[in-house]
Amino acid sequence: MKLRAYIFTLFIALSICGNGQEIIVETEQQLENLTELLEEDVEDENFLQQLTYLKKNPININKAASDDLRTLRVLTDLQIENLIIYRSFFGTLIDLYELQAVPTWDIITIRKILPFITVADNVNVKNETLNRLKDGEHYILLRSSIILQDQKGFDKSLPTHYAGGKERLLLRYKYQFKNLLQYGVTADKDAGEDIFKGAQSKGFDFYSFHFFARQLGRIKALALGDFTVNMGQGLIHWQSLAFKKGADAINIKRQSAVLHPYTSAGEFNFHRGSGATLKLGPLEGSAFVSIKNISANSVIDTVSNEEAFSSIFTSGLHRTAAEIADRHNIGQTTFGGNLTYKRTGFSMGLNGVYYQFSKSFQKRDEPYNKFAITGKSWSNYSFDYSFTHRNFHLFGEAATDKQFNNAFLSGALIAIDPKADVTLLYRNIEKNYASLYSNAFTEGVYPVNEKGFYSGISIRPTPQWRIDGYADIYQFPWIRYRVDAPSGGKDYLLQLTYKPVRGIELYTRFKSETKGINAAPDSVIHYINNIPRLNWRLHLNYQLSREWLLKARTDIVWYDKKGDLAESGFLTYIEGTYKPSFTLSLNLRLQYFETDGFNSRIYAYESDVLHSYSIPPFFDKGFRYYFNINYDVSKKLSIWGRWAQTIYRDKESIGSGLDEIKGNKRSEIKLQLRYIF
Known about the structure:
- This protein is mostly beta strands.
- The chain has 2 domains: 2-543, Porin; 544-677, no CATH class.
- It is built from 8 helices and 33 strands.
- The strands form 4 sheets. The chain has a 24-stranded antiparallel beta barrel. A two-stranded parallel sheet has the order 1-2. It has a two-stranded antiparallel sheet with strand order 27-28.
- A hairpin with a 4-residue loop joins strand 16 and strand 17 (406-417).
- The longest helix has 18 residues, at 2-19.
- The chain is globular.
- 37% of the residues are buried.
């Protein structure tokens, strides 16, 4: 038995090492999909910081609570519930081999999470209390990057220009002891922002501090400083990273503890104040209060003739005189909470959040803004639930806003066979429903003005083969930006993954999406045209040896293939990672792309320095390459470097507005240092 367990564990470990990536392939795809939806990089390093820490300090599978397991973003609630039930019947696991005996757990899932879990004896939390402040890990991280070419905004002779220098700087100090205590400070300066002068006379443009403790007796979590709040299924409030549709077709449920520490450099999607979660038997309650300033566009309300704001700036950029004038000019007070009743296999909760602004929120007078948030205050409330019975898991949330407009979402996960799972999700969000920090499983960026039905399936006929697919059909009952009539769409994906032997993973994917947009944006009368967008991808990961990992991809896109707006796009790359020792790692990518325009753009996840990633869109014609290096000078000091360059064909300038570069090249240098003490 022990020999079989050892061989099994060794096999999985070698399979994981063959992947050689900081995050799994499905997560890369989810990040690409999310970036494409938002049309900007998702600035959230919390997730990567967490994975890096868990590799060195894996979760004890014998004592992990459901919230601990959810942080992996791999396991479904059905799998988590089954593990907890298994432990209650059979006690602690002796070896990871036993995970195969847990209902709904499969070899593919175990391979994904193995680097982040361990089997150990239960440790009394009280015995660790005195160790929290002395036995954790301290580190200081400094990151600097710069685009070498001159951008238009740095020309000081222009009436509108960037106030600061070209470099971007990030400084972070962090202390962490397991998942029980962490605190730290983050400081960030974007390119074009001043530092220690002008509007930023106090140094960096953005500072963040957090203190977060868990398992303090009946206090399950305590947050001071900056933190995020996640409730229900995201219909009223969800600030942590959450994925939409993707190749992981089954994992669609929002799963998280209510409170999380905030350690990223993004300047909008967090709260600043205090929060706590208390547990009393089956009851668990959370409450929080936040007071912070946000950046917004100031206007004069035409009705009251008072100053108001029409939009909130989420980019965190304060470079020009106009951006600086709007910096932190609106006060926002937020408070809310959650009360949940939990039993094994069942939970239900009540959620509420209230906002108070220092000035009135008044969006631009556009038809698609008719039902947007208005006034100096707003509130949302909801009821969420989940239920697990054997191979069936049901979840959902019903929400309302200040004006009693409603939103509803409900889904089910069914393990129809040890080798097959099915998921279903229905959402109905009224056209006049509005929320602020929300992020539910919807086609749109925010849960508003949408009805839809999603179904996904995952089939694992053998350990070598996996088939994932989904279908999503949705409608928008009211007009939207660039869509001047009710519209709808449909989205399909099919992905086939093949892992014939250790160290080789090949997948091919076909995705089809059809969505309505204005067909004649420049005419007086608009009509809706349903535009299809097709995408085919072939991706290979190949572990040539212990030192060499090879990745290759080809993407082809067809936009409005037989219509008046027809475009096509092509992208291919090959990437090699060489790790000759535990202290040195080298990474190189060579890429070519060619598209007919922006509509046929293609997004591609890029390896970067520790705790960072980038997913730029590629369109027009050109080459791109980047080179990453990581060298551990000692056990305490590590260095990362990155050089990336894009060379366009037949272009005399790159970018637009103040980011315009004269010429056909864009080059970036990045350097990062980390010291552990």
